[in-house]
Give the backbone structure.
Amino acid sequence: MQVEFLQVLKTLSAAHNLQLTKVAAPFTDLKNFDYGLRQSLDPQLDWEEMGHQMLKEASPQTLILAEDIFELKYAVFTLPDEENTAYILGPWIGQERSARSVEWCRRYLGEESDKAIEQFYNGICRLSGDVLCVILNGLLTLANDGKMVEMVQSKSFKPLVFEPDMRCFQEPMFEKELPAAMLERRYAAENAVMDAVERGDVGSALAAFEQLVQFRMESRFATPLQDIKMLLVILNVLLRKAIQRSAVHPYYIDEISGRYAIRIENIADASQSKEIALEMLREYCVYVQQYSLKRYSPLVQKVMNYINLNLNNAFSLKMLAGMCYISPSYLSYLFKQETGQTLTDYINTRRVERAARRLRNTDDSVADIAESVGVLDVNYFTKIFKKSMGVTPTAYRKQCQQ
């Protein structure tokens, strides 16, 4: 039960783009509970003392909602049946840095140091913690066999009270280290998006994207709309490279990336950006699902690419085998072994897919569409279309228009 409850907590933290840090001896994980902020500001900080202090002040009957001097928010709690262990959920921020926080940093740490901390803030998740804390409180109450857990708000939770050792600021390496650490996190988030798209995994891609967008980048242009366009261009390039890693043919990569490049350029309202970004993620994943040849041998990839790029032509097994300098029988065997389909079935499937798209998006006649995908006999085209789609081309078009 305890393991299952921990898994629920991890799922909750991931859903809100937060980290869950375990506080237990020897407290090695504690150094990164704030993404390295304190470690950068005070390399001599006694983490073991801080860990013991946190365990001392945490209570099984209390959910502590703490805010530190940097205005970072945390939830601190313990779980039943786990002695000498606490957990920290966070950090997150509820709003922009206050004037008080900026003034404190500039007064005690200096202008350059404050710039580094501002970059740090750009990578912290921003959310309203009210709903999160209510959910967390309910989970902890269930874990405590229904005994109510009290929520305590605190801006002076002693383990989180922190003032950096000013002796460390003679050579403040954190001005480089802290922004670098946050850049590492941002690039890791970008890689998570690319990895999910490379697999064609829509759900994981959308979840990874939600983690990526928590990082706020500095304005580089005169207007917010120009900044948004720049970020969408970057995303388009990342997704382009992701499906390239999945062995999608450059023809399709160029088609989708070029199409979105035009859409991005024509954006007139910043409110369109999120919708376009999510649409891009979904469609790039679909392209991987449809066109990725990564799992096939180079020879089968060559045949598939030739078919996909020349669907309006006539194909023969002998011609395709000659193109690969192998016998027709061996190509037939190899193709069926790797794809689970005969060459004929594969060609027909691709033709029907292409034709269905044109039936949905154009008013062209069925005969013209059949010819455009390499089938001159309309009756034969209708036969293979119905076999694949369950309805005739004409009926399919009517269904799509309803």
